[in-house]
């Protein structure tokens, strides 16, 4: 037998050859492996998926005229989101309900003013509920635009308020919620603290989504708890417009080796908004800084300052695997034999009735 014939025989597939081929709108897969009839492996062993999609941050500010006006402004971006082909849009912290920058709600050591109580009532009235008409409108927008939405809201529960992010799928369904664990400084006067029951990592058509709100991003244990659940796209709702925030976003994307989308509010000066605060009348209240970062810490879009707008970038989720080749902080770089993190994911209700 000639060498050529020997080579042809060696290269010919056997009867036990298994070929797997799958395709979807965003992913391509082609795998061939030699297995016996009784051999079986989980799908994840066979799959190396290339999934490209467009993600975006919508930089908007809460309207001083109220939540309904802010909602109308969000909905006005539906066509642009759909035409851009976005599969994920992240929106800023407290966008619906408002971020009351500069207000003190009449809090003094030892007493609260009557005006502060009136201010809290007004703020409470602008907040939304997770099953309210505003969320239904956002769900309809997500379905019509064929896009997953992550939206910062002030959530009303009884007479308490939470700073929350809502996760809405491209099927128009509310699939998850996160309540801010640690409001910062004076935010604690008006926002309750979330518990460990709202720390989801959600499988969506845009990958595994999760994230943190504003300065929660500086909580290492919180980040690790989400890294451990396999987050692929870190969604940040914030009002932090400082230059150092950009360094933080790049660091977190690089640490977790994941894509990151940070959406910040943009609010013009108090004078332009027709409001009164102790903030300088002609100075921009929140200047923005929305940004999209790669798993290697490179800026893909933004930062956007001084205006409202939609920034977007095309991402390839398979880049996450490449990035984690030498640093996987919840895998081969974790040293679980030394360090362990315990997360109490139970819902903490104020009153628990026990009956026989």
Outline the fold blueprint:
Blueprint: H1 3-11, E1 17-23, E2 27-34, H2 43-46, E3 50-59, H3 67-75, H4 78-84, E4 86-90, E5 107-108, E6 111-112, H5 114-126, H6 133-145, E7 148-157, E8 160-168, E9 174-179, E10 202-204, E11 207-213, H7 220-227, E12 233-238, H8 243-256, E13 259-264, E14 266-267, H9 270-273, E15 286-293, E16 299-305, E17 309-316, H10 318-323
Parallel strand pairs: 3-4, 4-7, 11-12, 12-13
Antiparallel strand pairs: 1-2, 2-3, 3-17, 5-6, 7-8, 8-9, 10-11, 13-15, 14-15, 15-16
Descriptive report:
The protein has a single domain (54-323), classed as Nitrilase/N-carbamoyl-D-aminoacid amidohydrolase (4-Layer Sandwich), CATH 3.60.110. Strand 11 (207-213), helix 7 and strand 12 form a beta-alpha-beta unit. The strands form 3 sheets. Strands 1, 2, 3, 4, 7, 8, 9 and 17 form an 8-stranded mixed sheet that branches. Strands 10, 11, 12, 13, 14, 15 and 16 form a 7-stranded mixed sheet that branches. It has a two-stranded antiparallel sheet with strand order 5-6. Helix 4 (78-84) packs parallel to helix 6. The protein has 10 helices and 17 strands. With 356 residues, the protein is of the alpha+beta class. It has helices at residues 3-11, 43-46, 67-75, 78-84, 114-126, 133-145, 220-227, 243-256, 270-273, 318-323, and strands at residues 17-23, 27-34, 50-59, 86-90, 107-108, 111-112, 148-157, 160-168, 174-179, 202-204, 207-213, 233-238, 259-264, 266-267, 286-293, 299-305, 309-316.
């Amino acid at each position: 037998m000639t060498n050529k014939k020997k080579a042809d025989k060696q290269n010919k597939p056997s009867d036990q050859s298994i070929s797997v081929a799958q395709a979807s709108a965003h992913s391509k897969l082609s795998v061939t492996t030699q297995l016996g009839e009784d051999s079986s492996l989980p799908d994840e062993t066979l799959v190396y998926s290339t999934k490209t999609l467009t993600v975006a941050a919508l930089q908007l500010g809460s309207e001083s005229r109220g939540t309904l006006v802010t909602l109308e402004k969000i909905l006005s971006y539906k066509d642009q989101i759909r035409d851009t082909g976005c599969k994920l849009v992240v929106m800023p912290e407290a966008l619906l309900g408002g971020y009351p920058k500069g207000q003190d709600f009449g809090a003094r050591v030892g007493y609260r003013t009557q005006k502060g109580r009136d201010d809290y009532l007004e703020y409470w009235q602008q907040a939304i509920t997770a099953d309210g008409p505003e969320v239904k409108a956002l769900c309809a927008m997500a379905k019509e635009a064929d896009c997953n939405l992550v939206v910062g809201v002030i959530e009303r529960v009884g007479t308490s308020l939470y700073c929350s992010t809502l996760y809405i799928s491209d099927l128009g369904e509310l699939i998850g919620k996160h309540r801010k664990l640690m409001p910062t400084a004076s935010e604690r006067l008006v926002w309750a603290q979330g518990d460990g029951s709202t720390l989801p990592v959600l499988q969506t058509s845009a990958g595994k989504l999760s994230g943190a709100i504003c300065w929660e991003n500086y909580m290492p244990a919180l980040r690790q708890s989400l890294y451990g659940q396999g987050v692929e796209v870190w969604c940040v709702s914030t009002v932090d417009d400082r230059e150092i925030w950009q360094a933080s976003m790049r660091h977190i994307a690089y640490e977790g080796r994941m894509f990151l989308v940070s959406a910040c509010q943009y609010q013009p000066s108090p004078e332009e908004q027709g409001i009164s605060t102790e903030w300088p009348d002609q100075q921009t209240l929140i200047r923005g800084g929305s940004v999209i970062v790669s798993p290697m810490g490179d800026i893909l879009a933004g930062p956007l300052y001084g205006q409202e707008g939609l920034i977007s970038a095309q991402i390839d989720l398979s880049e996450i695997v490449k990035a984690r080749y030498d640093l996987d902080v919840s895998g081969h770089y974790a040293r679980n034999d030394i360090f362990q993190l315990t997360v109490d994911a139970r819902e903490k209700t104020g009153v628990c009735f026990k009956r026989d």
